[in-house]
Design goal:
2 copies of one chain form a homodimer. Chain A is of the alpha+beta class. Chain A is built from 8 helices and 15 strands. In chain A, strand 5 and strand 6 form a beta hairpin. The interface between A and B is medium-sized, with 27 and 27 residues.
Chain lengths: 337, 337
């Protein structure tokens, strides 16, 4: 038995498109910040007494496609460990309801940590990152805390994440504006594939990312939050331009997304350095220096109810506990990558 | 003295970016439909008794930047004709108030027609098209009726419009959904220049247009309205992806634009062939076969008040009357290009 806790992450330079659908090798590098406020805790037991996988998320049994995806992932762990048993998986998402932030990133990172350890594997964080990647691309980065780079690589061995700055020594912070979507969204998996295949701008996007990775890393080293925010905002808009230019074209923006973008830009026009980013959904995340937090929250609260504004500093990397609740990865422990 | 009437046009393959700012030579070809419902009527008199230009639009005096732009245009006409006098210009826009469709296209086409004739020039329609281009790029196409192609050319002589099908012999029709914008918009002049300079996707956009011009002309020859609509919709979204990917990124969409797009797509999901296009503003224009008009109007009226839905068939090319109110260009008259 093992338990793992992993945080979700928000990309500052986006991952949008796979080169290999099965191994989840991305078309580009990407770079994210792990968020303290949003995480998943997952416990896994491989049990010879089980006659089928038993999976719950937030204490509700999971069946159908959701269960299939988890079983497919556990098959990889079984193959790696030689373990033959079915598993019991109990997972809790610590994400505000309807936030649209319950991404698969924290879920598959936590599952990778708990399942690998429960199966008897003792993986390095780099190998955990590679394993998490098989479940969901963005989970690759959720193994690490702080600011994280995912090297696209060219195969299973070379495509993994690495920390750029695990413990932030400057005031970079994010705020999620919770926006509900009434409509069924296009999954990021489907959306990015459509962009790769049908957007005439996809080849240029790869150059955009290559350039943004360089300037973003330089901005991080310089602790230059306005530069980080500006690059992240442009990068996000250029990703969303891929969805608009796909065939059929579509957008993850809804009415409130536009309102949120406008609110952030109005604050910026007032001289407050804040920037936005968006992923495959209508939520808007604001990037800023924690010194400006109060003014930004006050400003946004003129448009959005305060309970819809969730502040998050950078969060830690994965933590894994063994069957005796002994922390074996994460926290204050040292480890090699 | 001369009077001219010119209709506005909506591009099915968009013009978005200049190669030459002064001569208004575009980066790409473009293709539009002239609309019967929206037009400008302009009377011009060159009068030696005048000591300054006198300009009214909808009976209101025009001064400042608006007047400067018209005077600059009249200077071109004076240079061509040798005329030295100031002009009196009286213009009426027949466009629903706040429609955002009072584009400079019909305005500068009508001004080109009236001013050139009033100055004594007798220009062919091709030369009128070249002259109108100097006032506003899209005015180049408003000299002609029906479906019109603007050849980008490479200089003043080679950049002009030409009709593809002056009198439509199939049911292509448009409907404008009138959407107000409370915010100051980014002018198309400024917006397109920003896209040319800062969008990483601009080079690919030029290839998109080259391809769309071919497929659109083939679809027109085949009278294939679903194909025309599909190409136009994709082309518009790919143009708007340029604004999103510019630095700073921006959008002409507002909340109601998204609602209108959704309404059109819902109708399409119900099996009605309708498509949308948008220009440098929040209004949405719907493209369809006039046989489906009633179902489309009924469907959209569930979301938008009926007075905000303006149906327009294709409109005629420019008409010019001389000082005796004798029609000298347009209507049933023949002319060479």
């Amino acid at each position: 038995m093992a338990t793992a806790k992993a945080h979700t992450n928000i990309a500052l330079v986006k991952y949008w498109g796979k080169k290999d659908q099965d191994l989840i090798i991305p078309q580009t590098d990407s770079l994210s910040m792990t968020l303290d406020e949003f995480y998943t805790t997952t416990r896994v037991v491989f049990d010879p007494a089980l006659t089928a996988e038993q999976i719950t998320v937030n204490d509700q049994p999971v069946t159908g496609k959701g269960a299939e995806r988890i079983t497919k992932f556990l098959d990889i762990v079984r193959q790696m460990s030689g373990r033959q048993d079915f598993a019991r998986v109990d997972s809790h998402n610590h994400v505000p309801t309807a936030a649209g932030l319950a991404s698969s990133a924290s879920a598959f990172a936590a599952l990778a940590g708990a399942a690998s350890r429960a199966s008897g594997l003792q993986l390095s964080r780099r190998d955990l990152s590679r394993l998490a990647r098989r479940g969901s691309g963005s989970a690759t980065r959720s193994i690490y805390g702080g600011l994280v780079e995912w090297h696209r690589g060219h195969d299973d061995a070379t495509s993994y994440a690495e920390p750029i700055m695990e413990k932030l020594d400057f005031g970079l912070e994010m705020l999620a504006i919770m926006i509900n979507t009434g409509r069924k969204k296009i999954s990021s998996r489907h959306g990015m594939q459509s962009s790769v295949i049908t957007s005439p701008y996809y080849a240029s996007w790869k150059e955009v990312v290559a350039n943004d990775m360089e300037t973003m890393k330089a901005a991080i080293q310089a602790k230059d939050i306005p530069a980080i925010g500006h690059i992240a905002e442009e990068n996000a808009l250029r990703m969303h331009a891929l969805t608009l230019s796909a065939d059929p074209g579509y957008t993850y923006f809804n009415n409130e997304t536009l309102t949120a973008i406008q609110a952030v830009r109005q604050l910026r026009d007032q001289g407050i350095n804040c920037y936005f980013t968006m992923d495959a959904g209508p939520n808007v995340k604001v990037i800023y220096d924690r010194r400006d937090r109060e003014r930004i929250v006050d400003g946004l609260a003129q448009t959005f109810a305060p309970e819809r504004l969730v502040v998050s500093p950078a969060g830690p990397g994965i933590e894994i506990w063994d069957e005796n609740n002994r922390l074996i990865i994460g926290g204050q422990l040292n480890f090699d990558y």
